[in-house]
Amino acid sequence: MATFNEVKERNLKILEQYVPIVARVHGGTHPEFHDVHRLFDQINAKIKEAGLEKPELDNEFKQLREVTGNYTVPDDVCESYEAVYNMLAELDKAYHA
Description:
This protein is mainly alpha-helical and 97 residues long. 72% of the residues lie in helices and 0% in strands. It has helices at 4-26, 32-50, 58-68, 79-95. α1 runs antiparallel to α4 (79-95) and α2 (32-50) packs antiparallel against α3.
């Protein structure tokens, strides 16, 4: 199983690109994604602030699971939306491993 740092290295740059785009494209029909965007920005800021240390993200991941229904991908969205949920779920799982 990948460590949090491995998943973070692999997913963070892609998430930084995808999250704002998905928010712009799907935010109208999926307003919950604006919460996902806000929470991702908080997580990303804490990760960058922590440097090599593991940041405290329990609250953010808890909120993400609530907002996304445990990362359940809606039926009417693009592959990028699905990829964001999958990468966030992977990050969450690795964080709690």
